Sequence to fold (159 residues):
Amino acid sequence: MSLDQPRDPELPVTGTLVYQYAPQVVQVIEYGTSADVAFSGQMALPSSGIRLDLYLEGPVVGPKLNGTVKAVDYMYVRADGRTELHIHGAITTDSGKNVALFADGLAIRQGASAVFDLRENVTLLSSHPEFSWLNGAQIWASGTVDISSGQVQVSAYAV
Fold:
């Protein structure tokens, strides 16, 4: 992923770019409703909504943080279609240090397409001195996920 990749102009972010990541969904665990069927619009969502666990892995690049991310999004899609994100994971830096990642937020479908806009509030934590500045950082992230390919792209900014 390029650091000069254009961002959504409707969502101005002021702050310092910390990282961009482009993980791939490598596994989906379903709890009674198929993700493919639910997101295809072939059926109404059940009144209880649906729960999906999306396992993510991929590169992290940026001026402040580089490495790989492994995470799980404990996604909940409400019956009204609101998609809530609840992500836990770890970024392993190129130097082998771990940074804990937690993010919550929303995925908002772009019309009838397979692409969802992502809006995340991110917390990063590490005891490694070179990354301890992340512990107090407020990080907002935005990006997209294409559910047909499982490709995620997110840019995260300390604000």
Remarks:
- The helical segments are 35-40.
- The domain at 20-158 is CATH 2.40.160.20 (Porin).
- The beta strands are 16-21, 24-30, 50-61, 67-77, 83-93, 98-109, 115-125, 139-146, 151-158.
- The chain is about 5% helix and 55% strand.
